[in-house]
Design a protein that fits this description.
Layout: H1 2-31, E1 40-45, H2 48-57, H3 65-68, E2 73-79, H4 82-94, E3 99-105, E4 118-128, E5 131-143, H5 144-160, H6 166-188, H7 190-209
Parallel strand pairs: 2-5
Antiparallel strand pairs: 1-2, 3-4, 4-5
The structure holds ligand 0O2.
């Protein structure tokens, strides 16, 4: 247990730091009173049992985890609209507190399961008392609808251990397409939605001032 604690310490630190930084991006949009492409941000360090499972499934030797398992530290950035995802990725590319090592576009190329998301793998420097340590962090950027689908599918996956009965697999694929159509419909009325949101946030500000 002590060994894992030591191994995971920089990953914990990276997740905590990046949560603050990425949430800070949202705050900055709020302060400008402009639409934030980021709705909310979450982060987690992969539980030890999941690290071991994945290492086993993908035949990753435990002494190669640092370089071969890219999502031990993971952040998720949720967006309202599909177009916001591009904007968030562009903002990430402009940052100089980490280096992007890989991007995976599962939106243009959805996975066979129906999964959609944009993954950006970065190399993030953590400052420790022994000096700087660079670790890999996976940032998943997705819409609220993509997140809804992925969360449900993930819990079912856990239940069936990846072996979905055929009817559930088909339904999940249909649900993924429905979530995608929902995103498309929302994009078509994006202007209307943003006008309404701007109106309500002005009303809230006035209420707080008064
Ligand atoms: P957890 O519990 O989220 O940590 P692979 O997993 O082999 O497809 P790879 O190379 O590990 O691919 O990286 P990739 O494709 O970027 O996917 C890693 C993570 O993306 C997964 O982590 C999930 O979080 C998410 N993901 C990928 N495919 C799916 C999917 O079909 N359904 C859902 N719900 N999520 C997916 P873990 O390790 O699977 O799990």
């Amino acid at each position: 247990m002590k060994h894992w604690e030591k191994f995971l310490a920089p990953y914990n630190q990276a997740v905590e730091e990046l949560k603050v930084k990425l949430k800070g991006m949202r705050r900055q949009f709020e302060m400008k009173s402009s639409h934030s492409p980021i709705e909310f941000v979450t982060g987690r360090v992969k539980p030890i049992a999941s690290i071991l499972d994945k290492a086993n499934q993908k035949s990753i030797p435990l002494d190669k985890l640092e370089t071969e398992m890219q999502d031990i530290a993971g952040l998720r950035m949720m967006c309202q609209f599909v177009d916001d995802i591009k904007r968030v990725v562009e903002l990430l590319r402009l940052r100089n507190d980490f280096e992007i090592v890989e991007e995976r576009d599962y939106i243009s190329h959805k996975k066979a399961s129906g999964y959609r998301s944009y993954h950006v793998v970065v190399r993030y420097p953590v400052q420790t008392i022994q000096g700087e340590k660079k670790i890999l962090v996976e940032i998943q950027i997705r819409t609220l609808a993509m997140n809804f689908w992925a969360t449900i599918e993930h819990s079912l996956n856990y239940k069936y251990r990846g072996q979905f009965p055929e009817d559930i697999r088909v339904r999940l694929q249909r649900a993924a397409e429905a979530a995608f159509r929902l995103d498309e419909e929302m994009s078509l009325i994006r202007g209307e939605i943003q006008d309404a949101q701007a109106f309500f946030s002005r009303k809230k500000e006035l209420h707080q001032e008064g």
